[in-house]
Design a protein that fits this description.
Radius of gyration: 23 Å
Helix content: 25-40%
Protein name: Seven-hairpin glycosidase
Subcellular location: Endoplasmic reticulum membrane
Strand order of the largest sheet: 5-6-7
Main location: endoplasmic reticulum
Organism: Arabidopsis suecica
Binding site for Ca(2+): 471
Shape: globular
Number of helices: 17
Largest sheet: 3 strands, antiparallel
Length: 574
């Protein structure tokens, strides 16, 4: 069972008919449970939001244990403010981040009040040194998403007049980002002063995510304003980063934006690299540029080949492909959700279940877990209310409709309420072994964690429109007018042919741009695709005369070779 993977389709490749995933429970019982859980998540959101508005607004984030605030626009990435005016009251980051969640929950009154306050009070003309990546995904992305929701008449979120106030704020912020890209390589500095640009003696070190995960927000800003500078800067940086990849199509974690040299050679799908993969695929869906697909395809195949070990993904040296660190990081839990977008459901389900086992073991997901020793990293025992496991759970339920994922969501909700809910909001966990709390409610708890849990139990919002979600959980509608070209073929059903009109048996699902076919009752053996990278052997019995007759292994994404006795297999060591 295959479906076209191109940007005019719904952003999820829905494989509803997977016989070994889909269960048929009582629909009435299921709907009752979903409504009950939806209301529990709604209560969670408003407990966090109302406490923020009471004790922290208009500052950036809530400190729920002391019922006080922190101005996190300047503290993201351990940043400190410099020479702030005495009347500075913060930039209401949590409010900006909450707007799209308020829209999804159907609270038009609070949504409109938030827009009014931001349009009258928010300014970026401040002497503050901020992290470009975090400010982009949280603030710029939040403003753009809320603007698009506000101008969509089908949402009916605005009762009064809306004159693009959020878009003007986004444009102002985007212009303040541009000096960061003025480097010899075109790769942006990690830090920018909103008023004065790049500071003297600014660090030239940044991460792959930091300079390769800007295209969704800045590309959208260009499409909305007609100013091409934002998309051009982000795209140039992305292409330059891709040119720096190794011969294995792997990228390191940190680099120098001036020299273009890699600093940290360890490559992974986790912290420092994660959203790079995410934005390649989602940029292709949103903008339709074939370059994004070609980069993603190569990067995805390399990740499956060099990182994957059963259901887990370790880190590897970008030059040799050899394993470096055998560890799970909580940010990696986004990966199954990305695999759903590719249609690689079997691989997504396998990894997701392992992440959930770790969640069940500790009650929440520790920041880092050492796979080779089966213990928590001694200095990274915290859980800052991250959303990634909830995010992947939402995507997998959308793709399979397996009610087991609803049970996973229910477990997550119960854990959050049991261990992290306090009278003043929801607190991060400092140590998952003792459940000692930390006085911080990150804005992404409202922007992502609550949002994905709510959408898991009530997907009516995404049923109306085709959306992609940024790495901060902000929805951006997929618009026909934003695509550079329409796909060559389009089928409304699940079954599809390749562009040549016939199924190409010697090609992978990624090269054909179709979802992997893993239905047990596939119509023809040569149509069977177990994963996104799977290429079948030429002969069904796996006999061969040369390597050219062998395909690509579905699990490891490694090339199969012909043995001395004439059978295809993984005979050569990695």
């Amino acid at each position: 069972m295959s479906c076209p993977l191109h940007p005019k389709r719904l952003f999820l490749c829905l494989l509803i008919s997977l016989a070994f995933f889909v269960v048929d429970p009582s629909s009435q019982h299921l709907e009752v449970k979903k409504k009950q859980m939806r209301e529990k998540v709604r209560e969670m959101f408003y407990h966090a939001y109302d406490n923020y508005m009471t004790y922290a607004f208009p500052h950036d984030e809530l400190k729920p244990l002391t019922k006080s605030f922190t101005d996190s626009l300047s503290e993201l990435g351990n940043l400190k403010l410099e020479h702030l005016p005495t009347d500075y009251n913060g930039s209401a980051v949590t409010l900006v981040e909450s707007l799209s969640s308020l829209a999804i929950l159907g609270n038009s009154t609070e949504f409109e009040k938030g827009i009014l306050w931001l349009s009258e009070n928010l300014t970026f003309d401040i002497d503050a040194r901020v992290n470009l990546f975090e400010c982009n995904i949280r603030v710029l992305g939040g403003l753009i998403s809320a603007h698009l929701l506000a101008i969509d008449p089908t949402n009916r979120l605005i009762q009064g007049s809306y004159n693009n106030q959020l878009l003007r704020l986004a444009e102002d912020l985007g212009k303040r980002f541009l000096p960061a890209f003025e480097t010899p390589t075109g790769l942006p500095y990690a830090w920018i002063n909103l008023k004065n640009g790049v500071m003297d003696n600014e660090t030239t070190e940044t991460s792959t995510s930091g300079c390769g995960s800007l295209i969704l927000e800045m590309g959208s800003l260009s499409r909305l304003t007609g100013d091409p500078r934002f998309e051009s800067a982000a795209l140039h940086a992305l292409r330059q980063l891709w040119r720096m990849r190794s011969s294995l199509d792997l990228l390191g974690t940190t680099l120098d934006v001036v020299t273009g040299e890699w600093i940290e050679y360890s490559s992974s799908i986790g912290a420092g690299v994660d959203s790079f993969y995410e934005y390649l695929l989602k940029a292709y869906i949103l903008f339709g540029k074939e370059d994004y697909w070609r980069m993603f395809r190569s990067a995805y195949l390399a990740s499956q080949k060099y990182f994957r070990h059963g259901p887990w993904y370790h880190e590897a040296n970008m030059w040799s492909g050899k394993p470096t660190y055998w560890q799970l990081t909580s940010l990696q839990a986004f990966w199954p959700g990305l695999q759903v977008l590719v249609g690689d459901i079997a691989a997504a389900n396998s990894s997701h279940r392992e992440f959930f086992h770790v969640w069940e073991k500790f009650g929440v997901l520790p920041e880092r877990y050492l796979l080779d020793h089966q213990i928590i990293h001694p200095t990274m025992k915290y859980y800052p209310l991250r959303p990634e496991l909830a995010e992947s759970t939402f995507y997998l339920y959308q793709a399979t409709k397996d009610p087991w994922y609803l049970d996973v969501g229910e477990t997550i909700v119960k854990s959050l309420n049991l261990y992290t809910k306090v009278p003043g909001g929801f607190a991060s966990v400092r140590d998952v072994t003792t459940m000692q709390l930390e006085d911080h409610q990150h804005s992404f708890f409202l922007a992502e964690t609550c949002k994905y849990l709510y959408l898991l139990f009530d997907d009516s919002f995404v049923a109306k429109r085709n959306y992609i979600f940024t790495t901060e959980g902000h929805p951006i509608q997929v618009l026909r007018s934003w695509h550079e070209k329409l796909p060559e073929t389009y089928f409304s059903g699940n079954w599809t042919l390749s562009k040549s009109g016939a199924w190409e048996s010697r090609a992978s699902a990624l090269s054909l741009q179709v979802c992997p076919s893993i239905a047990l009752n596939s119509r023809r053996p040569e149509q069977h695709r177990e994963s996104a990278c799977h290429v079948p052997d030429e002969q069904i019995n796996h006999k061969c005369w040369s390597n050219k007759e062998c395909g690509v292994d579905a699990t490891t994404c490694r090339l199969r070779t012909c043995s001395g006795v004439g059978y295809c297999g993984l005979w050569n060591p990695l």
